Amino acid sequence: MRAIVYQGPGTVAVADVPPPQLEGPRDALVRVALAGICGTDLHVITGEFPGIQPGAIIGHEFAGEVMAVGSAVVRFKVGDKVMASDFTACGHCRCCGRGDHWECAERAFFGTGTSFGPPLPGAQAEIVRVPHADTTLGPIPAGCTDEAAILLGDNLATGWAAVERSALLPGEIVAVIGGGTVGQLASLSAQAAGAGAIIVVEPSEARRAFARANGGLSASPEEARALVNRLTDGEGVDVVIEAVGGATALTAAFDLVRRRGRIISVGAHAAESWPFPLAKSFANELTLGFAIGDSIRLRPRLLSLIMTGALDPTVVVDCRIGFAAAPRAYADLRAQRVMKAVIDPRM
C-alpha cells in the first residue's frame, strides 16, 4: 500500500509499504478516506520529537471505513464509517474512566515515534491499524463530512480543550497566540463558548486576515499589547491561549494577560525546560495550564456543535491533495503558504 514516510530530518516521501494486519482482538483496520497534515507533523519530521525512524509512516488525523475487526471489538463492524482520535486509549483504566484518556498507560500516538508511548504506524496511509478500536474510533454520523471528522480528531479537539481548560466565562476577552489551524479553531471555539472578543496574535498578514474574516480580531506580535490595552483599559486579557509551542510564544503570553488571568498552552512542546517568570506569576496570581485535545472525551459535544451549524471547523482547510503532492504540501505548510492540508488516498 502507499503511505507517507519519514526519510530524515525535514524530509518525507511517498513509499510502498506492507499493509498492516490485525495484531490483537481489540484492533480494527480502517481504509483511509481522508488524512490530515498537522502542525505537530512538522515538529515530528524536523526531529524535535525522539524515536521517529526513517521509513516510519507519519500522520495522526484520519477518517475512513472499517475493513476488518478483531474478535473483541463490539462497537464497530466492517463497512462502518469512522473517525479516530489521534491517540489510542484502553477505555477501561482509572484515567479513562474519569475522561483523562491521554493519561492512559496504554496510550500510543499515531505516527510520532516514541515521544508519547510505543511506536504506532501513522495515518497518512491507505490502511491504518487501530488498537483499542472501541475507544479510539467513533462513528461518523450522517451529515458530518470526513473533513470535519478529521479536524475533530485533533485540531478542533485541541482548540476546544484550551477553551475548556481556561474555564472561559461569557463575555471574557481572549488572546490566541498563533494563527495556524489550532489557533484559528481555538478562536472559533472561544466564540462558540461566548467570549466577548478574541484577538489572534500572528505575524502572517494572511492568517490575520483569516482570523478577521472568521469572527476574530487580529494583531501582529508587535501590535498585540496596544490592541489589548484598547480593549481592556490597559488591564490585559482574561485568557491567553498559546497555540504555537516553544518558549518564545509562551513567554509572550505573560505580557498580554491581566492580573489573576489564565494562560493555557496547547502548542506542542519538545524542550525539557523553560525560564518560568516565577516572581511575576506569584505577584499577579496568574494561572498557567496545559491541555491536549482529547477527542475521545470531546466527540459528543463537538459533534453537536458541528451538526447544528454552531461551529464549522472545515473553514481552515485550504489544500486538498493526493499522495503524490504530499511532500510539496509539507513544504508549503512549513512556509505558511497553506493553512491546512488534507490527503485523499483516492486522488
Automatic annotation (TrEMBL):
The keyword rRNA-binding does not apply. It comes from the Bacteria. It comes from Bradyrhizobium iriomotense. Belongs to the zinc-containing alcohol dehydrogenase family. PROSITE patterns: ADH_ZINC. This is Dehydrogenase. Keywords: Metal-binding, Oxidoreductase, Zinc. Its cofactor is Zn(2+). Residues 10-343 form the Enoyl reductase (ER) domain.
